[in-house]
Amino acid sequence: MKFFSQLHRSIFEPRFYVEVLSTSRAHVFAFLVKLFILSVLVSGIFKTYYIIDAERGISKPLAIMFSGMEIKEGVLIPNRPVPYVPPRNLVRIVYDRTVGLNFMGANFPDTFLVVDTENTSWEGNRKPSILMNKNSVVFMPYTESQIEFPYELIMNGVENFSFEPEETRSLLTGKIRVLFFNQVILSGVFSLIMIITSVFFLGIAAFLFRLDKSRALRGYLKIACYACSPVVVGNIMMVASGVKIDWVWHVFIFISSIIMFRAMVAIQRTESENRDKNVEQ
After folding, report:
1. What's the average model confidence in pLDDT over 131-137?
2. Phi and psi (nearest 5°) for 113?
3. Which of 212, 216, 70 is nearest to 155 (CA)?
4. Beta partners for residue 161, in sequence order
5. Helices vs. strands in the chain: H and E counts, helices first
6. What is the mean pLDDT of residues 35-53?
7. To the nearest whole percent, how much of the chain has pLDDT over 90?
8. Is 126:114 a contact under the CB 8 Å cutoff?
9. Which helix (H) or strand (E) holds 148?
10. pLDDT of residue 155
11. What percent of the chain has pLDDT over 70?
């Protein structure tokens, strides 16, 4: 409960930052760790939910991409001429919804994902990054570090699969623990980058434009560790709503900048009041 109290005060109480200056590094670090864990767990839960969701998930785009295709007893039957290159816009939609970001697949080449059960030779820039061959899905198929997943393993005991939305959702639901683990890892990477970037942006900006020349950079970074709360909370709210906006970080870092400014004003005012009291005494 203390963490949520600190989280609330870091957003709504400028005078809270007067206390932050005397807070130990261990307590500041503990707050950031808890903020990170909150972001990762909540984001992981909602991103997993939206992958499986009937309307905003990946089952409908997959049904269009692989219409007519089947997997029978671990063997892919394309029922169409191969190699087959799914529409890039659908590949981007599936990738972005899986990763949970709105721009990751924007620059994919046309042959990012290829269905090829005939072992066609691919050269140059047209080499696929994901290849669906007769018996497996191969990631980075033309590199030494390729990763291969047999359809039998992916299907999890399902002998006949036709990429229909309900079948896809049923398959994904059966692998919800794996999906959640993957989303926790992805959310962890993004949250870590987001928090570190926000803390250093706020701390360095406040240091460069400081009025109190006696305060070192580490003091501003300590304040920034709490002032970045709106960025994390805002991101959690966006993930929970299912809305993806490319420039959302800019909005929340602006809000955090205002909180950082209010914190500095409160600190300077408190220090000024303390100096006046000392003079009177």
Report:
1. 93
2. -120, 130
3. 70
4. 71
5. 11, 7
6. 95
7. 65
8. no
9. strand 147-150
10. 86
11. 94
CA atoms within 13 A on the CB side of 197: 12
The encoded tokens of residue 163 equal: 């990429």
Q: Is the pLDDT score of 131 beyond 80?
A: yes
Instruction: Please report where in the chains the tokens 């079948």 appear, as a residue.
Output: 167
CA pair distance 136, 153, nearest whole angstrom:
9
Please answer whether residues 195 and 32 qualify as being in contact, where contact means their C-beta atoms are separated by less than 8 angstroms.
yes
Report the residue count for the chain.
281
Q: How far from 164 is each of 91, 176, 198, CA to CA, in Å?
A: 16, 18, 42
Nearest to 109 by CA among 96, 90, 128, 137: 128
Residue 181: other Cβ atoms inside 10 A: 13
CA distance 114 to 192: 33
- CB neighbour list of residue 268: distance below 8 Å, 6 or more residues apart: 211, 212
| Dist. CA 128–CA 263, nearest whole Å | 51
Task: Determine the residue type at 92.
Answer: R
Helix axes 25-52, 217-227, angle to 10 degrees: 40
Please report, for residues 127, 138, 175, 215, the alpha-carbon distance to residue 124 in angstroms, rounded to integers and kept in the order given: 6, 18, 35, 55
In whole angstroms, give the CA distance from residue 156 to residue 169.
13
Predicted confidence (pLDDT) per residue in 231-274, tens digit:
999 999 999 998 877 788 899 999 999 999 999 999 988 878 77
Report the C-alpha gap between 212 and 5 in whole angstroms: 29
Other CB atoms within a 10 A radius of the CB of residue 144 amount to 5
